[in-house]
Amino acid sequence: MIIDSHCHLGSHKFSRDEIPELIARAHKNGVTRLITLATGEDDISTNLQIAHDHPEVSACIGIHPCDVHETRDDFEALLSPHLSDPKVAAMGETGLDYFHPAPEGWTEESYHARQRDFLRRHFDLAQSAGLNLVIHTRDRSGSASFEDALAIYSEYAEQVRAVFHCFPGPPQLAARVIAAGGLISFTGIATFKNAQDVVDTVKSTPPGSFMLETDAPYLAPEPQRGKRCEPSFTRHTAEAIAQLRGLEVSELARETSEVAQQFFRL
Fold it and tell me: What is the rounded average pLDDT of the residues 212-218?
């Protein structure tokens, strides 16, 4: 069993009519559980409905850092009514994004400050609901968003576990997440020939401290790179990572599925 721990089935790049076909292809490739993540007010209900319609799908709810400027100040009112839904597996996707420029009417400072405020408040919600949290970080250069997100996580790490999804960094950054009690997850980037940092991290990260994901519809792995990504492609990432770690795919699937089952309360 392989678990795609992070995809976006509610994305406009997927039509609702094709969701059963996407799930069937995933099953055919050994991907038997899927976690679909909301990123804003507009797709919370869509992702929850997909999860309720399909027993192998669970959902996470949150506000993506790139959406904070378009989201009401009391965003908790959007999320709180769903926290007791048994299909809600964690909070997210939330986090910090210093890659995209500040939107019109915002300075970089004010935009990033609102992201940090929203991240802390997602942690507060997660703590109150007994849920874990999925974190996005991205920088134009350097690792400022990672440093800020890790500092905020450290304030909550005793109560809430976080996964730094689509982990792009070198082993020393991954080690700091794991030392704080967190997890990382790997996308198809691990199959890219120019992603040496991620390959090094794949090889060195201890068993039980990472998960597999697609981030579909983005970041399709080799040999599907350049295509629209989908959950069935988790198989390609699993095969590449198993080879890098000197494991059978079945053993890697077992290790990463156990981590995902515990993190998302499956």
Answer: 98
Rounded Cα gap, residues 214 and 236, in angstroms? 10
pLDDT tens digits for 169-186? 999 999 999 999 999 999
Query: How many structural domains comprise the chain?
Result: 1
Q: Confidence class of residue 138 from pLDDT cuts 50, 70 and 90?
A: very high
What's 233's DSSP letter? G
Q: Looking at residues 197-217, what average pLDDT do you find?
A: 98
CB count within 10 Å of CB 75 equals 20
Mean pLDDT, the chain, rounded, equals 97
pLDDT digits (tens, 9 = 90+) for 84-133: 999 999 999 999 999 999 999 999 999 999 999 999 999 999 999 999 99
Q: Supply the range of the domain harboring residue 150.
A: 2-263
C-beta of residue 16 within 8 angstroms of C-beta of residue 10: no
Residues 6+ apart with CB under 8 A from 76: 121, 125
Give the whole-angstrom CA distance, residue 134 versus residue 128: 16
> Phi/psi at 64 (nearest 5 deg)?
-65, 145
Tokens 């691990």, residue located? 190
CATH of the domain at 66: 3.20.20.140
Lookup: tokens for 235: 């198989």
Give 88's strand partners: 59
205: region left, alpha or beta (phi > 0 left; psi from -120 to 50 alpha): beta
| Spatial CB neighbours of 17, under 8 Å, sequence gap ≥ 6 | none
- 183 pairs with which residues across the strands? 163
- Among 180, 125, 116, which Cα is nearest to 148's? 116
Chain centroid to CA 223: 22
**What SS3 class is residue 157?**
coil
Owner of token pair 């899927």: 34
